[in-house]
Amino acid sequence: MDTVIGVQYEGGVILAADQSNARSILTYQSNLDKITKLSPSSALAVSGPNSDLVNFSEYISKNISLYQLSNDGLQLSTHAQANYCRGELATALRKGPYQVNCLLGGYDAPSGKGKGSLYWMDNYAALSKVNYGCQGYASNFCLSIMDRDWTEGLDQDQAVAIVDKCIRELEVRFVMSQPNFIVKVVDKDGVRTLKFGADPADN
Amino acid sequence: MARRYDSSTTTFSPEGRLHQVEYAIEAINNAGTCVGILAKDGVVMASEKRVTSGLLAPTKSSEKTYKLCQHAACNVAGLTADANILIDQARLRAGRYEYQYCEQIPIEQLVEHVCNYKQAYTQYGGLRPFGVAFLFAGYDAHHGFQLYQSDPSGNYSGWKATVIGANNQAGKSLLKNEYGSSSEEKEGEMKVEGAAEEIAMPDVNEALRLAVKVLNKTMDATATSPEKMELFVMSLKDGACVHKILNKDETQKVIDEVEAESSAAGDS
Fold it and tell me: How far apart are CA A195 and CA B243, in angstroms?
């Protein structure tokens, strides 16, 4: 089961996800990147079956690119992107649902909000703006850590430290082995990878 | 000579023109004038009201100004019946955007949508174009206050100040001379010719006066009165857009101010 973790801090959002792609007793891949860049300052971390994970991420990211192309480079705010994403989940819900649970993290420049925002979305198209969140079994282990350690006005290092703490907890207490995690930051300088357990580019 | 290429919208003439579209644009030159002026703290739209009969009992609050959404409004010049269809389209588009993104639609996207709808009637189906020109006034977080003009061809452009409807050329030439130079500035500073960046945007009150001045020029009657014109102002209050159509007293006040200005200018 996938683990997806997100922490919002002053100036951006940290998103982390495990890198395994497995079904039943077989691991297909252990360097999968489940965090997709949506726009120059937002990213979507997705958990779910690989088919829906990839299809949904690409569908959303391409539509957001289309918006930017059609509107002279205008960028959607994180709030708008999250609601768009939720709308797509909602439309598909009673037709053929996407079995994905996501965390959308973005940074809005000061004229908008000047800070990072994190949105939690599930496969039933519920949407909630949160300061920190998880998807999957990870919630059982990690939410209490984040409840205790998160405060307003964290900096990037502190936010990453919280994420690291969550990952270590899972290594100790979660029955499934998740050897690799990829951690990305979304801030005023864009979306970039901080660290990974296995290089997604390796074939 | 171009007669046989006139009747169908979907046929180019040998000179590469769409005559039906041009005729539609002509139709608007007989309609009541609308002036739009962009101010630094809002947008002003002033229109000539053509009262056809004293027996009229109007049902709408305005025949010229229509609210499209919380942060956009438009003025109409041309066939009102045609305009109603397009205004519905605009309102739907604004509403659907908000439904999808939980955010207000950027004004240019709203204008472009209406214009794309109009363009279809110049290319498909053998239907005639819409005989309407619009002035769109709106506010969004990306570009602040904006003013757009669109015509039956589906073309649109953004303006600092513009006029549509009857005598629009006279109105435009007045705006060209007077927009961006307030009476206080004229005395002291040098105006740099042709440097668009030097234009000082008026505030809403100056814009209102300039709009009335333009209407005075374009309207047939020599005496202007509040019954003959409608003044609309869009501004921000506490971060939200406010749409206001001036009432009779407020309109009279602006008319009086313009009257005073012109007689003062006449004296000096």
Answer: 51
State the average pLDDT over residues B111-124. Answer: 94
Of A74, A79, A83, the CB nearest to B142: A74
Q: Cα separation of A200 and A198, whole Å?
A: 6
Interface of A with B in 59-88 (CB under 8 A): 71-72, 74, 76-77, 79-80, 83-84, 87
pLDDT in tens, A163-197: 999 999 999 999 999 999 999 999 999 999 999 99
Quick check: A51 contacting B, CB < 8 Å? no
Residues of chain B contacting A, Cβ within 8 Å: 99-103, 106, 108-109, 141-142
Residue of A nearest to B112 (CA): A71
Q: Which residues of chain A have pLDDT under 50?
A: none
The residues, any chain, with a CB within 8 Å of residue B160's CB and separated by 6 or more, are B37, B38, B147, B179, B180, B199, B201
| pLDDT of B4 strictly over 80 | no
Which of helix, strand or coil describes residue B50?
Answer: coil
Which residue type sits at B94?
A
| CA–CA gap between residue B229 and residue B46 (Å, rounded) | 7
ipTM of the modeled complex: 0.88
Residues contacting A72, CB < 8 A, separation 6+ = B108
pLDDT for A28 equals 95
At residue B68, φ and ψ (nearest 5 deg) are: -95, -35
A106, A85 Cβ separation under 8 angstroms: no
pTM (2 d.p.): 0.88
Going edge to edge, which strands form the sheet with B240-245?
A: B161-164, B34-39, B42-48, B229-237, B240-245
Contacts of B148 (CB under 8 A, 6+ apart): B107, B108, B111, B134, B135, B136, B138, B156, B157, B158, B159
